[in-house]
Specification:
Helices cover about 65% and strands about 0% of the residues. It is mainly α. Helix 9 runs antiparallel to helix 12, helix 19 packs across helix 22 and helix 20 packs across helix 22.
């Protein structure tokens, strides 16, 4: 009994069982637990061949040897870089959980290379005829629920779990009343953020069919009453995957990429970059399309959209036009003749100051919240038209008009505005803006704002 208590950090006597228990305790969700347990088998087999039967005896050198072992397997078995990295990452997570030491880990990219996050091949399921034929085949084979899930994934951009667990009565009411739906059930990590997707008449028809099918079974989602989510995935959804492969549809997640490519074409007016080896439109329009698509997919990060629609870089035939556009924008930014937009504010802040990108995004959000509505209300169209009086008036309205903000939050907004004033090249505006806000200067603003003083010194000497 004492041996069981101390073996494998008290999880279990068997090495395999201890790894399974550790993954179950450290993860939530059936899908993540199942996939991690399959991938962690490579680690347990490696430990057994090395003569290690207790996780307490795993040294850092053993973890390094496992990295070299996975690198060799990736070459011999032709694994993708992402899969090999996931195997090493799961070993890191397992050892960090049992040792309560997050620093006990190796860098997967040092052994199997850097994975690519950008889609280079067009997604399957772009052809509407293939989608219709696949859905019709599923209906004929008794997979009505799987057919509707396929349509929801393709035309709403839903994940598989989101389509399966969707609250159909609520979605149908929203679609008929507002022309859009808010996806809340089955989201990744249980995120409860506003995720609005526009719905047309065909989308309303899909929701109506799914609602009627669920109501026949006295349910609100597409999971049958006599099954749970896991049983439904293993039965009808597993059979549907085989049917989808006959129509050359890779899977349900690939349909999200097809939806993203369609949305990019609707917003930007040009094909998605994955079809043209790069973007064929202006950078600002491309960025705006990625922001919209990332919000509809539930990511809230435009850079994640690269794995759905392709790279941001311009196509070869568009590179000359893009360089000319960048030169024009750079010239306008230098002369402060660029229009007052979020993109120009971002470019101005990033080019003038040093510091982490996350902090720059926070300052950009604050400055945009204050500056953009004020400029629209006072017909200020160019950055060079902004004066000290404008910023002082803006500070007074922000400080007095937002009483629900704490003093700390007001000071944070003031620091962001001071950073913008320095970016305009008017460091002498700092004291009048502080006086207008009613905040006493306690420390040097340059130290708090991470001002790139070398750049200002070089400009001053010139």
């Amino acid at each position: 009994m004492k041996r069981f208590i101390h073996q494998n950090y008290g999880l279990a006597f068997s090495l395999e069982r201890a790894c399974q228990i550790a993954i179950q305790r450290g993860n939530k969700g059936y899908g993540s637990i199942r996939t991690k347990q399959k991938r962690i088998q490579y680690f347990t087999e490696f430990l057994k061949t090395s003569g290690i039967k207790d996780l307490r005896k795993v040294r850092y050198a053993d973890l390094q040897s496992f990295g070299e072992h996975v690198a060799q397997l990736a070459k011999t078995q032709n694994w993708s870089t992402a899969y090999a990295q996931n195997i090493l990452a799961d070993a890191n997570v397992l050892m960090g959980f049992v040792r309560r030491q997050r620093s006990f880990r190796i860098r997967p990219c040092a052994y199997v290379g850097q994975r690519g996050w950008t889609r280079s091949n067009p997604p399957t399921g772009m052809s509407m005829s293939d989608i219709e034929q696949c859905a019709h085949a599923l209906f004929k084979n008794g997979g009505e629920r799987a057919a509707l899930i396929l349509l929801m994934a393709r035309f709403f951009g839903m994940r598989l779990q989101e389509a399966v667990k969707a609250d159909l009565p609520r979605l149908l009411r929203q679609a008929k009343r507002e022309g859009r739906i808010n996806i809340l059930e089955g989201t990744k990590g249980g995120r409860k953020v506003a995720r609005l997707v526009t719905i047309n008449d065909f989308g309303i028809w899909i929701l109506q069919q799914a609602h009627d099918l669920a109501r026949e079974d006295h349910g609100r989602c597409l999971i049958p009453q006599d099954q749970n989510y896991i049983c439904f995935i293993r039965s009808e959804i597993a059979r549907a995957r085989q049917v989808m492969k006959t129509f050359e549809i890779k899977g349900f997640h690939d349909l999200r990429s097809a939806y993203s490519c369609d949305r990019y074409t609707q917003i930007a007016g040009v094909p998605a970059p994955v079809f043209t080896a790069g973007r064929t439109t202006r950078g600002e329009l491309d960025h705006n399309a990625r922001v919209v698509i990332s919000a509809e997919l539930g990511h809230r990060r435009p850079e994640v959209v690269n794995s759905y629609i392709g790279a941001r870089k311009p196509a070869p035939e568009f590179s000359d036009i893009d360089r000319a556009e960048q030169a024009r924008l750079k010239r306008e930014m230098t002369e402060l003749q660029a229009p007052v937009t979020e993109a120009s504010l971002s470019c101005l802040l990033r080019s003038t100051f040093k510091g982490p990108k996350s902090e720059c995004r926070i300052h950009l959000r604050r400055v945009s919240d204050m500056l953009l509505p004020y400029c629209r209300a006072h017909a200020i169209h160019r950055l060079g038209e902004i004066t000290l009086q404008n910023l002082q008036e803006m500070v007074r309205s922000e400080t007095i008009g937002h009483e629900n903000r704490s003093r700390k939050t007001q000071q944070d907004y003031l620091l962001s505005l001071l950073r913008f004033a320095h970016a305009l090249g008017h460091a002498e505006w700092e004291l009048p803006i502080r006086e207008a806000a009613g905040f006493v200067k306690k420390t040097q603003a340059g130290r708090q704002l991470k001002i790139n003083r070398r750049r200002f010194r070089d400009n001053k000497n010139q």
